[in-house]
Request: fold
Amino acid sequence: MRAERYKAVALEMATSIRAGDLPAGTRLPTHRELAHERGIALATATKVYRELAAAGLIVGEPGRGTFVRDLSGFAGMEPRRLPVDTRVADLSFNQPLAAEQGEHLRHALRDMACEGDLGSLLAQQPPGGRSTDTAAVATYLLDRGIDVPPHNVLLTAGAQHALDVILAATTTPGSTLVADELTYPGLKLLADSRCLDLAAVRCSPDGTDLKSLEKLARTRKISVVYVMPTVHNPLGFVLDAGRRQRLVTLARRHDFAIIEDATYAFLDPGSPAPIQTLAPERTFYVGSFSKNVATGLRAGYLVAPDPDRIRLIRALRTTTWGTSSLSTALVTRWLRDGSVTRLEKTRREDAKQRQAIARRAFQGFDYHAHPASYSGWIHLPSEIRSDQAAHRLAQDGILISTGDAFAVGSASPNAVRIALANPTIHELPRLLDRCRDALSTL
Reply:
């Protein structure tokens, strides 16, 4: 079979999909059935489907088959955005912001303008931040059980920047990066941009399947494992202390590093001790002030193991060099005066109220969420396609996220994630009722 044969079959099927001859939601033949129908080898049929999936035309779902995707563009990793004048609500992304925060910012900026050396905010910070600022973050981390000197705290332009810096310092093209089979979409983008081999381990609303990780570690050399042990995105689980310790045992046995993403950890202050406290020599602890303070600040941090600090600083120099002096000044000011702690408490109470509303709205659905998180995960019944659900809601001006945005690999769950933070608490019940009605009538 000539190598070009699979491309010819893929092109023919792609043309049929784009022309509407194979409409969205059509269940395609199995790989074996396609091979028989087209008179091609099974391996060639697999290449055909891989080509179509890479083009965003089809999606495979474990145990269900391969389907033609809705091509309206409202599903997937980077969905279309509606024009502002037609958008009713964005439930695809969380930007929590309390009504009083604008005035809080106004007072902080006024106070900063009237005290100290304002010109110093125009000077470039050293990579990783000034010692006084890293000390403020180190003090803040004591409440999470992390006791490290300011020397080990490096400031970044958000958690995404921190992740990129860590991968730049610890991996090379072709290195194996492991994550849950449902994970933070930004990690997938970073793995692709750095040419890493992103491998998946099974997970469920109960947590990461460490037996799956152990099996993978026995057969492949793993460089880094990325986890969200406290308030996982998108499933909302919290790993118990036993699983955290077993993960550390595996990391030491198979000699891989751990990235602990704690972006949402503030939502569950009663969670078990961070993995960083169990294995500080190989754990990179990442946090940000996007979800607990404001997404526009683009301020974050990482706690660096001693042996890796110099490499991380070098990686910081090659990216943004350092963080914005103004953002850092605002964040550390609010850390010192207790504003961040108060905001986090407000966020937790707000998230609990929103989750209660969501659970009522989606009663009867296969709904999973942490009781104090800002999102919920819905496994859809087989007769409802997630991409078609996203299209239908987008027509009503409501944006949601589909499961394939979070899936590692070509197989995707038939699920959606609903973000709860953006609408007002008074608008949320009506919006979620509209989502429920749309999902019930497709």
The first helix runs from residue 5 to 19.
